[in-house]
Amino acid sequence: MVTGDPMQTTDGPSVTPLAEPREAKRILVIDDDEVTLLMCRRILEKIGYEVETFDNGVQGIQRLREAPAQVLLVDLKMPQMDGLQVTEQVRAFDPSIIIVLITGYATIPAAVDAMKAGAYDFLPKPFTPEELRITVGRCFERWFLAAESEKLRRQKEELQRTFATFVSHQLKAPLGAVKQYLDVLLHTSSHPLPETALAWITRSQERLAEMLAIIEDWLTLARIESERLGDKDATADLCAIARKAVDAAQEQAQPAQVSVDAQIAPDAAAWVRGDAVALGNVAANLVGNAIKYNRPGGRVRVDVTRERDMAILTVSDTGLGIPQDCLPQLFTEFFRVKTDETHGIPGTGLGLAICKKIVEGLGGTIRVSSTLGAGSTFTVHLPAAGESALRGA
Amino acid sequence: MAQEQARPGQNSARGRSKILIVDDDDDFCASTTALLEAEGYVVARAKSGKEALARLSQEAPPDLIVLDIMMEHIWAGYEVNQAIKFGSRSPQAGRVSIVMVSSVTIDPAERFRWAGEVGMVTPDEYFTKPLDIPRFLGTVKSLLRQSS
User: Fold this and answer.
1) N or C: which end of chain B has fewer CB within 10 A?
2) Which of A22, A6, A55, A31 is nearest to A132 (CA)?
3) What residues of A are in contact with residue B129 (Cβ under 8 Å)?
4) How far is A191 from chain B (nearest CA, A)?
5) More confidently predicted of A343 and B3
6) Given an 8 Å threshold on Cβ–Cβ distance, is B38 in contact with A187?
């Protein structure tokens, strides 16, 4: 996708492939005044541009659809289709073209409208050959800059993609291979291993599992940062996500002797904007933490409610709680609460950072309140999708 | 440890189920082979998607295939999966179960929903490496039981 103007958003249909900068030199001029067209053609062709001229918007637009140009000069006041309409229509199919409005009188409201429609500059009539050359020169500079930055953006995206793949395959694969040797060794060994060997192998398995988990979390972060966490227009049911997280957590909760309950009616639904996988990640992280930083006999409660146009996911526990001085850093990457009670609890320090990135990326907020020794409550607010977003909850 | 005899399969000379591991990672193959052999299965290996397809066109198909996704290229495993699933529609080919494995962790439901949308056949099961051994062995066992 080519971004041709700061007024344009980066979302839009992708257009013609980028011409090789410095080779691009096509200009289209649309004006109902024959003299202006002739003058533009003479001046600009003399300094090496390819110029095509049209005396009306309809034909000019038609030509631009067939053969894109880098710069369009268009008269603001024309019978039938005026310069603003031409600008809007051309913008709709070519976000990269640089448009200059030729005008006898540029009022401020007209200028604002033109900029909104996607024009880059004005050329007041009458103009000298020098003024025309300078304006057109600046337009091409602008076009080259946009093309260059687009190229850089694509390179960066490509790098992020390949880097994530590299990390997955080249870093995780050897660690996984080593861990699986140890796993299979313990699983298939027919003789009891010496006590120290067993202890060290077990410890190695744990350390490898931690490292794999860090890579996994780090990859998730990288994925969120490169905005590849699914479809921006996707919607997800927060109730279903919460129920799924609670079900999945039972396996972790039972050995920890922590009870996990969802306070959500079976037919309740709360639709929010966002990707179900990413939001599932958030819910699983919060519920997982509530179990991990808890004690035998502890409880975890998961709620989904609605407040005006927000859906709210609440995960509260009767666990260890968080020291007040740790709360400000809690969502920072690699930060972990270090107390006697949390010592030895495995974790990467990335889970809550991931949650925050996902939630804020979806226009929501995540908050925590906690009492040391009594438990914590994490509250996620997410913009609801649609009017009847929540039923029965 | 668990040295129980596997269910007899129709394809192997010694009456044991035959499993083909398709993976370019020697270490993963070595440990997975050891694991499956300890369970009494007969294990063969192909080092690439291409080699797997060549073997399958020449030999009797195995009862189950453990199939890596990224090998000579990133979709090599999908291609093998696709070929086997379509190929095994012929009555004499029988049903070959496929367990896909990869170092990449993506929600399998999400991954294969996408695969389904572009017309790919989904594998029977999906595992992230390193394998969760009890779950992997349980899956292999139940898939072999289904296909018998």
Assistant:
1) N
2) A31
3) 172-173, 176-177, 180
4) 9
5) A343
6) yes
Instruction: Indicate yes or no: CB of A173 within 8 angstroms of CB of B103.
Output: yes
Mutating which of B104, B110, B114 best tests the A interface, going by the most A Cβ atoms within 10 A? Answer: B104
pTM metric for this prediction: 0.54
Single-letter amino acid code for the residue at A312: I
Checking if the pLDDT of A185 tops 90, the result is: yes
Pairing state between β B97-102 and B64-68:
parallel
Which residue in A178, A179, A184 is closest to B34 by CB distance?
A184
Q: Which residue, B110, B101, B111, is CA-closest to B131? A: B101
Percent of chain A beyond pLDDT 70? 86
Do A287 and A260 contact (CB within 8 A), yes or no?
A: yes
- Name the residue with tokens 């298939």: A188
β-pairing verdict for A310-317 and A375-383: antiparallel
CB atoms within 10 A of CB A296: 8
Q: Residue A287 CB: number of other CB atoms within 10 A? A: 24
Q: What's the pLDDT score for residue B119?
A: 60
Element (H, E) at A327: none
Residue A291 CB-density burial (10 A; 0-12 exposed, 13-18 middle, 19+ buried): buried
How remote is the C-alpha of A264 from its chain's centroid? 30
Interchain contact, B31 vs A165, CB within 8 Å: no
Our CA-based measurement puts residue B69 at a distance from the nearest CA of chain A, in whole angstroms, of 11
Q: What is the DSSP secondary-structure string of A126-164?
A: S--HHHHHHHHHHHHHHHHHHHHHHHHHHHHHHHHHHHH
> Strands of A299-307's sheet, edge to edge?
A259-262, A299-307, A310-317, A375-383, A365-371
Q: Identify the CA nearest to A30 among candidates A70, A86, A68.
A: A86
- ipTM of this model? 0.76
Q: How far is A5 from chain B (nearest CA, A)?
A: 35
The order of strands in the sheet holding A121-124 is A50-54, A26-30, A71-75, A98-103, A121-124
**Tens digit of each residue's pLDDT (9 = 90 or more) over A25-53:** 899 999 999 999 999 999 999 999 999 99
Q: Which residues of A347-361 are buried (b: 16+ CB within 10 A; e: fewer)?
A: bbebbbbbbbbbbeb
Provide the pLDDT for residue B14: 47
